[in-house]
Amino acid sequence: xxxxxxxxxxxxxxxxxxILLRLWQLQILNTEKYKKLAEQNRIRIIKIPAxxxxxxxxxxxxxxxxxxxxxxSISPEYAYKVDINILAKILNLSAEEIEKKLSxxxxxxxxxxxxxxxxxxxxxxxxxxxxxELPGLIIETEIKRxxxxxPATAHLLGYLGKITEExxxxxxxxxxxxxYFMVGQTGLEKxxxxxxxxxxxxxxxxxxxxxxxxxxxxxxxxxxxEDIYLTIDALLQESAYKSxxxxxxxxxxxxxxxxxxxxxxxxxxxDPNIFVEGVPQHYWNELINNPQxxxxxxVIQGLxxxxxxxxxxxALAGLEEGVITPDKVLVNCTGGISFGAWTFxxxxxxxxxxVNLRKALVESCDVYFYELGRILGxxxxxxxxxxxxxxxxxxxxxDEKAGLVPxxxxxxxxxxxxxxxxDTFNTSIGQGFLKVTPLQMARVMAIIVNEGVKVxxxxxxxxxxxxxxxxxxxxxxxxxxxxxxxxxNEPEGTASGARSYIIKFGGKTGTVQVISKKLKEKVSYKxxxxxxxxxxxxxxxxxxxxxxxxxxxxxxxxxxxxxxxKNILEGYILKKRQLNVKx
Amino acid sequence: xxxxxxxxxxxxxxxxxxxxxxxxxLGILTLYSATRPPLDEGEQPxxxxxxxxxxxxxxxxxxxxxxxxxxKLKNFWLIFYIIGILLLIIxxxxxxxxxxxxxxxxxxxxxxxxxxVFKIIFIISIxxxxxxxxxxxSIKDTLKAxxxxxxxxxxxxxxxxxxxxxxxxxxxxxxxxxxxxxxxxLLILLLFIFIISIFFLWEILWxxxxxxxxxxxxxxxxxxxxxxxxxxxxMQSVITVxxxxxxxxxxxxxxxxxxxxxxxxxxxxxxxxxxxxxGFIGCFILLTLYFTLFIRCWKTSIxxxxxxxxxxxxxxxxxxxxxxxxxxxxxxxxMPVVGIPLxxxxxxxxTLVANFIGIALVINxxxxxFELFYP
Lengths: 583, 375
Description:
Chain A: Pfam families: PBP_dimer (PF03717), Transpeptidase (PF00905). The complex is a heterodimer of chains A (583) and B (375). Chain A is built from 23 helices and 21 strands.
């Protein structure tokens, strides 16, 4: 035998040894590691979303429902193998769209990539038929949120969206949820997300490499989220939205004795049902580029001068301080008063003649309140305005704006200027620096009709309302209430045009000048129209609700806001009667 | 030719045949396990049945190839070789494309891989060519051999593209030349040229590779670069082998293959399926079978009565050993993934028949070692 024959044999032997050593390493030294990996290969943990809790109105009408829907996903390890063209054809999507989704960074090798949601039965059938060509295909059943009242409840309930990075940081519970899980992004859906979400179930299944489920190993069912019962009256809410739908504005009604919020509407609104699928870009752009800002909840975040609705507070201050009596004629209105170089006009150019408190409120005489303001001084006006809750949030919601009640100190600190009597005049009739939210004004109304008890508005039924007695003289409140009833129900009242034969309601109109009259003559765009206010209560005898309503750039309170309020109330009453008849 | 000397039957190498046959049976069992459907799909062709039929065909072929004296092949080597090269050219023009490569010729009733047929022709030809050359080889003969058996088939096969087979055949040409004998100086010079040319040709070679071939090489160096793409095969293969442990999960108890985590589980990646179910002990036994087989083939080259027989045996031994090492090496993640089947175990008819012809010729050499040259 030759030497090289041995070299040859040695080579064979070496190969034998090398392979054996490698097998030793894999099968003996690291067997546990690979056993675990092999196990993970064939086991998939599927999170099953729990049905979210239902949100009901005060009468048990669901404001949001759960509807089953189907979605198609692809197992990530098959992302590069799937026939994109077949998928695109069946799902009516562009190939690029699908490619983009598939090429995204995967969270985990076992977390399916969502391709399309809300499949039709036809789509499901076509996918099933071509399953062998679509490796990694997973069809999932899920529950979709549906808002039967659509835009009418959008600001109230908010909407759902996929979990964002920040939310995961803020709420560690979200970490265990797959990214396509929907959680509350705004409104009650967000505030009560923990309660509504429930506990997701878990399914451990054996799968093959195509992601097909072969065997169920373990299953823990999801636990449905808790239901929430609101103080909202769906019928009033809907009626309010319908009346405001074409306008820009807000309506909020509260039960005066308890603080329960009966309706909360901000217009324009948006359709939360579109958000359920993840907002389409064009819809989102439309919303954020809309100058009317549909995403703003005007009830708690809209800041406006209260206009003449503030006269209710000036009047109350006058009565409480004892500087006026109901029948005392304080001024003889000739259409305005002069103060130094300035003239402060009344809205009625011809003047109201001799004016007492009742007439001042019913006909909204500015001159009367200028004089009353002068007598009271800004400190007193500030005192009563803040006592009635202006200048600070009502405590309903953390997103609320505080508003502003000015006084001399504020002006000195903030504007670096001294307070003038003219400022007091402006404040007395609700103009100038004052800023309020519609919710604050609704509560002012509630305090007036509820014997001076200040309630904190709330929306979840069963909550204990915070109440505070302001120790106002019931007689004074009654005087104001009667006058406010006359505003609507007597011919000379500023809201007499809105008088209703179906429901007797009272209130105060307000018209907020957006720019000065001089300027107004020069420009004539729609958005220099006045803001129209109406704060009121109904029915007049034993008020069950106090409300406030604003129509931005609507015109005058009497001509625009009061009739809208009438529409809302009548629409509500009629609908209620209709349902009662049916029942 | 049909007149069989009784002596030949008693000289027939039953042990080699038994080992090969046993490995084939193990292969078919593994094939059955690997392709058993996890769901009642009924879509899987019964690979193991097909392979059983091929085993029968291969056995008959083996018998046919031991009946005549291998020495007669020597005279026809040039004709064989030309036919082989023609087949390789034909496949480039008319070949059936599968998985991006033209490797098959379709004859209607079945398709076959010319490169498998060529392997046999190649060993016979190179052995015949080298037999009557003086040892050590002259520079002229060395270059001739390198050109005829190295460069020409390499360029044709790499075009299919079948990088694995091309490189393998080139390597075998080298082994055969070295085995035949080279002056030490020439050997050193060749190695030197080889290293230098790799150095210079690397970029050209690299650019010449298809994208997937490059990716395979990259993935071999670091499978974690693309665990869901090219590296997937390697990682899944290693997981499959490793999860077998010492005793294995047991026959038909493996999960990686039937659940289709392992691609190509019935062809190139059949070994991991075996390793998962039979464990380290099973692998040790299987490796020992192969080792014994290779050593017996090698021994044949030593005891062969003539130079042609020696070269023939060492040629086939080399081809088996290299296929075996590269296939198992790639499934264990110590070799790059090239499409090389495991001899006698991987699914595939042409390959099985070709390998049986190889074994038949080695047995042929062994059983005729006592025959006289001039009876």
